[in-house]
What we know:
Residues 33-191 form the Glycosyltransferase subfamily 4-like N-terminal domain. By secondary structure, the chain is an alpha/beta fold. It has 2 domains: 4-192 and 367-384, Glycogen Phosphorylase B (Rossmann fold, 3-Layer(aba) Sandwich), CATH 3.40.50.2000; 207-363, Rossmann fold, CATH 3.40.50. The chain contains 16 helices and 13 strands. The strands form 2 sheets. Strands 3-2-1-4-5-6-7 form a 7-stranded parallel β-sheet, sandwiched between helices. A 6-stranded parallel β-sheet has the order 10-9-8-11-12-13, sandwiched between helices. The model is unreliable at 1-13 (pLDDT under 50).
Amino acid sequence: MSTPGASVAASITGSVAGKRIGLLTASVSTLGGGVAEAVLSQAAIIRDMGAVPVIFALRDAKTDAQAARFANYETHLASRQGPAIFGYAKDMHKQMMQAECDVMHLHGIWMYPSRAGAVWAQRTGRLYIISPHGMLDPWIMARGRWKKALARRFYERSGWRRAAAFHALTSDEAQDIARETGAATIRTIPNPAPAARSHAADFPAPEVIFIGRIHPKKNLAALVAGWGQLSASDAGEARLTIAGWGDGGEVAALEKLVAAAPGNVRYIGPVHGAAKQELLARARFMALPSLSEGLPVAILEAWANGVPTLMSRACHLPEGFSSGAAADCGTQADSIAAALRRALALPPMEWRAMSGAATDLANGPFAASTTAQQWRTVYGALASGKLGA
Length: 389
């Protein structure tokens, strides 16, 4: 395994100018959640370094309506056949071969794109890298065991062996990758934060927000239960606003929880673009008591807007705790309630210090310029066929 600094020092790089770098994933619409956002962010990084990003994804229920999301990039969408859980698309491999990419970068695992990436590498003799995006986390591995066992046996294991390297978002994920795949070459590079800005308010109204996928791993039931433990004096005029998307069953379950919660809890559905920015601009804190994450883009978005966070250690962002940009809320309703009480009682001066620390993280270790230089090194090495362990 190697740290980002060691990656830069050890890699023998070539030029990436003009190289065609494939970004392979299951979904590039908002249904893809944080992985899709990471792919689009990666495409921007690749373009800025003078290379050509080429996106390959499965067509889903939202891709046609959301074509503007990826309109600036060469994008190939393949229609799915068969069970959605596997995502087989017979045209995907053909599209990949015709695109003549120099490097392929797989984002996410456990679906057909994993197989397509491995076959592409075998037939072209070119190098590819895999970003699991937290999908080898122990909490994730404990769910859907039969599906993962079949995928590992029939295509994942062979694809892992063929990959030139794995990409980890955090040092914790690097350990997960090494344990599950046995990979020797792992590059650790975080997701980049958006361009940082100071918070829109000097001391915003007491609104705590959640933005993200509505999924059991986000632990929203515990968040709502923890909020319910706040007394009238704890909460005052504060409110909890939950924004996000998910499948029908998960959203319905959340709506039922919110209906039974205090009146200062609301679910507003998905937010994107200007609506998301408006929500971040008025938030005092973002809460994310997750049970499992890769590296949550929502936290980076919050920090880039000067919004401190209440998060669990499963978010794998210890920099937030050490810098003072975040407070540990744990994953249980009691610990979440305690963190909310402390946060809502924080004096303006102390909140401003947390907000400034959040912006500093987005400007520093998670800045796009920092991660772009690391990716330039890795992609250059892959394109030249000289990526070392």
